[in-house]
Amino acid sequence: MSNNLVGIIPPLTTPFIDDEVSTEKLIENLYKYENHMLSGYVLFGSNGENVFLNSDEKLSIIKSVREHTSRTLIVGAGLDSIKETISLCNEAADLGADYALVITPSFFKSEMKHRTFLNYYTKVADSIMIPVVIYNVPKFTNVNIETETIIELSSHPNIIGLKDSTENSSRISEIHANVHSGFKLIVGTASVLYPGLISGATAGILALANIAPDQCYQIYRLFKERDFEKALEIQNKMIPVNKAITSKFGVAGLKAAMDLLGFFGGHPRLPLEPLSEAQMIELKLILKQASLID
Amino acid sequence: MSNNLVGIIPPLTTPFIDDEVSTEKLIENLYKYENHMLSGYVLFGSNGENVFLNSDEKLSIIKSVREHTSRTLIVGAGLDSIKETISLCNEAADLGADYALVITPSFFKSEMKHRTFLNYYTKVADSIMIPVVIYNVPKFTNVNIETETIIELSSHPNIIGLKDSTENSSRISEIHANVHSGFKLIVGTASVLYPGLISGATAGILALANIAPDQCYQIYRLFKERDFEKALEIQNKMIPVNKAITSKFGVAGLKAAMDLLGFFGGHPRLPLEPLSEAQMIELKLILKQASLID
Amino acid sequence: MSNNLVGIIPPLTTPFIDDEVSTEKLIENLYKYENHMLSGYVLFGSNGENVFLNSDEKLSIIKSVREHTSRTLIVGAGLDSIKETISLCNEAADLGADYALVITPSFFKSEMKHRTFLNYYTKVADSIMIPVVIYNVPKFTNVNIETETIIELSSHPNIIGLKDSTENSSRISEIHANVHSGFKLIVGTASVLYPGLISGATAGILALANIAPDQCYQIYRLFKERDFEKALEIQNKMIPVNKAITSKFGVAGLKAAMDLLGFFGGHPRLPLEPLSEAQMIELKLILKQASLID
Amino acid sequence: MSNNLVGIIPPLTTPFIDDEVSTEKLIENLYKYENHMLSGYVLFGSNGENVFLNSDEKLSIIKSVREHTSRTLIVGAGLDSIKETISLCNEAADLGADYALVITPSFFKSEMKHRTFLNYYTKVADSIMIPVVIYNVPKFTNVNIETETIIELSSHPNIIGLKDSTENSSRISEIHANVHSGFKLIVGTASVLYPGLISGATAGILALANIAPDQCYQIYRLFKERDFEKALEIQNKMIPVNKAITSKFGVAGLKAAMDLLGFFGGHPRLPLEPLSEAQMIELKLILKQASLID
């Protein structure tokens, strides 16, 4: 595996044909992504419709993707159940996954506090064969893991990073100032990629990288070259696009944009629905204004 | 099976010994409950720590419980994935479950609207062998299914009821006025059992019934006998207890109370923790004030 | 004044003509309400657009209304500032108000806890010449005053009741079981009038009473006469109407419904806007289905 | 007045002695601040306990502060009532205020959308003699004004800026890319000062500037000098302090820190309470760790 979590990493969407997983289409997309400056791939992120996939589907996808790329492979594998999480992570590891992206447990919201998170992540990290990346995404979980908790967990030898999908870059800043240099901070949404990098992040796992991998990489490269004005300019151009494929139209919007941009998007799985015609028109306009399509 | 959803039904807790399921303790509890006026049992409700159990554990519990009771058996079997939900429901049906309690999908919160819920519940109900009870519990899911949606779903021949765990009995009232008489409305929290019955509910699936089955049944019976003052008196006495075992102390509190009242409670599964000593003292006081212990 | 808080009380809307208060229209409405079985009036409730009125406007309205009715007059007079609240309450008292309806302070949300509420209400109640009714309305304040706090405050000689505008009647139940009989519990929304009365409330301050005073009164009377089935029937018929004039269309909807039902509604004050044409059509349909209009 | 909104601006706390405003103490603080590199002052920000002050107190404070400084004076003057807002803004202008900081109206939360905000801010800006700075602070208002709305309002000749107190710097970025260069973007919380400046903000109105004006200014200066590493280092050192005086301990914490750092803090006004002894110990530790006290 590539030995670190740096650069731009798309959380791949899962193609469905007639509501069934199409690994073939996924691999076709993968081949296209291999030609872009991407450091790796996430399978089964939120927008990978992780919650709609069963265990067999997941393992079959990992196997297939692993055969077709040598880039870093990060697998979304967190569930409320510690036992199930460990089991899935280890199966993923056996199939060649490099990292486990473990979302915060969240069902018993009012119990999800410092101690509970320590219990959960310590137990998982102790028991799996690949390193853990903590995944914080309050917009889906309605739970937020505090910076103090992450700082404490960062000393665990098998917990090596955080994907933070809030838009609050001061979290990155604060954690960065309090963890060892090996602990990787990963921006989870393109809207704050640039402020996140400035604040200490080394990578971005970005839905936007599914449709605009080059623009995401440019922001990253320009930041590294300290060309801040140019980085910000591209960042700003991408903000409306990123909104469209996340908060505005969700995974259906992301997939529709993929179809418009030469990848296979297709429909989200039921019970989600594809975009309406009116939404498609709005999406196209946004992509056009950002010069992603003509 | 008993052919209807009426009366008091405890959502059984799942006993763990050394963090492993103890079916033995579960059956011991069951034998005790069989001596009380209970109409059935829910397995894998929220407080059954459903999210911490894997598929094998669930199937083994259903099998064992089915062998030891002829009362109605309702199995919590909802997941975001339609496919997985159908598969689990049908396995439960094969093992003798009478009803599937299907929690609202919730991960993609902002997409969980009228159309999505129709898609989800119609597909599930079309494909499973036992009737569906919709389960609405916003405090855990951060999603609320609107009364209009439930009313529309009530016409599906295989969707036969709703467990509503909000504390808003006007929802029961409104739905009751707009559905056919076979559609069962079930109160999901003891704090509004009495107002719920008054508003058209026929049953209560109540965490409280794990520790105070007789008091819950009395409220139900007194309501049926139109002895409203007496019903309300017991209801009021139980409100602080119900708070203690739900919002205040969660499943750890419910299990601790079970231990104090002659059932096997034990610890919740990791990452949850048992009550602290100070919390135990407070819990005992509350149970004493309600005359449940001396 | 009428010496107690029982029965049905409309929180009067404030008529505006060209965005200016029309006391004349308010008095015209009042004359109509005097012919209905209403126990009193609230001025400057939430739907009275309290937050859009200045002090002079409020005092002038109180003066005018007091001159035209001998029924109980309850004046909404709570602000975050204790000092301002006291001053407004005492001015209202001088003009003949019978009770002060004091909304929970709410700006510093995370500080609004037991101790803060005790500080606030004790200080206000100590300093004003008329009795205080606590007003809890989380949908507007995003703050909820706990039942424990209300129970503690109920022992203050000048705090004599609670208007609770949540839809959770177990709050009424729990408080009722723990306060002296003189402490009045008032339902704050028509959707739970009947469950609230059953649970110990003696009155309803209901937006719905602005447009359907007789139906509200009937629910109250039938409850008193223990004709529960009939009470529930009317309650259920009113739920969609109540939703339309509260959560669905807000104060603009309430005022539009008043216009349709023979009262003066008019437009809400800026920045709020009147209903659109499409909304008007929907509102009329709802009123027609409830047999309020032909 | 200083002719633009750049640099660091503390939102002054309001000193109380025996729960009464002490203008004397406020002026003493002001004299101290005059020796620091601050561009101006905000009166009656959230932490100025704006909601606890009446109109007379506010006007008297403005008058006094205006007499003692020639720096930019920004006055918090937003209320739900358009009429009252206009009246207060114009009184403030008469007394020498340079800008009105107008918080989003928020009481009717579900109505607070694009159109309503346009109505509100347009009407206010049309009618007052000093320029309007929009103030967005969802943690207190539970309302968020969308970037699209701000961009549209930015074309009004009398709306000249935004104080954004979310921690999401992509909002700054997005607005910056879509407004004319005269529209000023102001960071509203020190935790994202640096990312905010990078994203296009020109100033910070920061509670932290009440206790650490030099550190705030250094972040600003280092950013202007493009010494990003150093800026970030100070920013990171201040994050725990900023948390302590905002989300952790609120205005009571901010005032306690002022007392520890040579300013007059005192107690917040009732119903708020001063820090407990345990909280004081924790606060001191945090200030010590940030080298603000020995």
Can you put this structure into words, describing what you see?
By secondary structure, chain A is α/β, with parallel strands linked by helices. Chain A is built from twelve helices and ten strands. Chain A has helices spanning 23-34, 55-68, 82-94, 114-127, 138-141, 147-153, 169-176, 193-198, 213-224, 228-248, 250-260, 277-289, and strands at residues 7-9, 16-17, 20-21, 40-43, 72-76, 99-103, 132-136, 159-164, 184-187, 203-205. In chain A, the strands form two sheets. In chain A, strands 1-10-9-8-7-6-5-4 form an eight-stranded parallel β-sheet. Chain A has a two-stranded antiparallel ribbon with strand order 2-3. In chain A, helix 1 packs parallel to helix 2 and helix 9 packs antiparallel against helix 10. The mean pLDDT of chain A is 96. Chains in contact: A-B, A-D, B-C, C-D. Chain A binds chain B through residues 46, 51-54, 79-84, 87, 105, 107-111, 115-117, 119-120, 123, 139-140, 142, 247, 250-251, 269-273, and chain B through 46, 51-54, 79-84, 87, 105, 107-111, 115-117, 119-120, 123, 139-140, 142, 247, 250-251, 269-273.
